[in-house]
Amino acid sequence: MTDSQSVRDGAAPAGVWAAPGRVNLIGEHTDYNDGFVLPVALPQAARAAVRLRTDGLLRLHSEQVDGGPVELTVADLAPGSVDGWAKYPAAVVWTLRAAGYEVGGADVRIDSSVPTGAGLSSSAAIECVVATAYNDLHGLGLDGPALARLAQRAENEFVGVPCGIMDQMASVCCTEGNALFLDTRDLAQRQVPLDLAGAGLRLLVVDTRVKHDLADGAYAELRAGCERAAALLGLPALRDLDPAGLDTALDRLPADLRPLVRHVVTENARVREAVTHLYLGDPAALGPILTAGHASLRDDYEVSCPETDLAVDTAVAAGALGARMTGGGFGGSVIALTAADTLDAVAAAVTSAFTDAGYEAPRTFTAVPAAGARRVE
Ligand code: ADP
Ligand code: MG
Questions:
Q1: Do 166 and 281 sit in the same domain of this protein?
Q2: Do both 268 and 130 map to the same domain?
Q3: d(CA 283, CA 275)
Q4: Which residues fall inside 5 Å of ion ligand 2, going by CB?
Q5: In angstroms, how far is CA 229 from the centroid of its own chain?
Q6: Are residues 241 and 176 in the same domain?
Q7: E strands, the chain, where?
Q8: Are residues 136 and 198 in the same domain?
Q9: Residue 348 included in any domain
Q10: Which member of 36, 139, 322, 355 has the lowest number of beta carbons within 10 Å of its beta carbon?
Q11: Does residue 372 lie within any of the structural domains?
Q12: 144, 173, 192 - which closes a domain
């Protein structure tokens, strides 16, 4: 037997996978209300080189984190047992095992171009790249929605973040050139063509580089408020409230819950309206929908912040067709829909407004609808 043969025969299953971050065009804070969302995958993605191990160890390395690999014993994984960034990939391995799949350890080297904590879903990219790699290497046969549900469960139960399903579905199920119109209740999905270039448009992303501490606690509180409102209205979820009955429903609720309900109901309607415009081949019509969505997040849901408001207002004043924060809020990123020839002026206006306000310069880039999770090597 030659050396190369022995390496081949004895080689552990291995490969390289990628899973993207996302921006959400419209449909914010609707996913945990069983509502609609319209995310787009970014070219920025988490890549993971993964090689299975047979000794029960999970060795995790990230190019974005200083220090050597984190070494964990798969059999000892339990919610609360892992600190820091390693809990995201470890969560997926724990969840697979909790779901009854007999998977073990691996060497995992992660290198992600998704900015972290920028509202662009770097966490779901990590979860989904590991879930997809394990699915392929172990031949588990899980489809996209099953992988996304698994990754969401990992974030909910192991990481401890009560997130909805949007980020994981976007990372797994988005396809190049399309937005993903998703019903988060039953995961029914449609790929909606988003030919921005063909319409002479661009989608500018402004990462404000701020993340206010409020973010985590407020998210859980908002989610609980929505669930309380649905229960008071006798509905399974706020998704089930017919917009025609909104005013009557609001009268039946305590004052503090009314704006939450108004946001969710009007936001679901905005998603459907946006999808109709995309099917009509009129992406420019999304502009005012984005700006209306931002006003709703700012005034009703109260999850915007001075930095995102400044980016939105400045972008619109500089000629963007519309703009809004994307992601959970309290910082993170803003998207602005612009004509191709005003893109640079809008980006420059936002950057100089930040300088004038004494904020750190934002990071700006153009989003192009990219592919979901896949094997790359
Ligand atoms: P978002 O998903 O919006 O980027 P989150 O707070 O949900 O923000 O997730 C960010 C966390 O995900 C980071 O704090 C880190 O723990 C983990 N993470 C994301 N990308 C990486 C990476 N490249 N390497 C290691 N950990 C990462
Ligand atoms: Mg996240």
A1: no
A2: no
A3: 9
A4: 123
A5: 25
A6: no
A7: 14-24, 36-37, 39-52, 57-62, 70-73, 106-112, 178-183, 188-193, 201-211, 322-326, 331-339, 363-367, 374-375
A8: no
A9: yes
A10: 139
A11: no
A12: 192
Whether 167 is catalytic is: yes
Centroid of ligand 2 to alpha carbon of 127 (angstroms): 10
Burial class (CB in 10 A: 0-12, 13-18, 19+), 156: middle
The domain in which residue 218 lies consists of: 194-366
Which of 70, 116, 211 is the pocket-test mutation for ligand 1 (most atoms within 8 Å of CB)? 116
Q: 151, 176, 192: which is the final residue of a domain?
A: 192
CA 201 from centre of chain:
23
The CA distance from 17 to 373, in Å, is 7
* pLDDT at residue number 8: 55
Single pTM value for the model: 0.96
CB 40 within 8 A of CB 176: no
Q: Average pLDDT by consecutive 10-residue portion of the chain (377 residues)?
A: 48 97 98 98 98 98 95 98 97 98 98 96 98 98 98 97 96 98 98 97 98 83 97 98 97 98 98 98 98 98 98 98 96 98 98 98 98 98
pLDDT score recorded for residue 213: 78
What would the two tokens of residue 205 be? 């992303």
Q: How many CB atoms lie within 10 A of CB 269?
A: 15
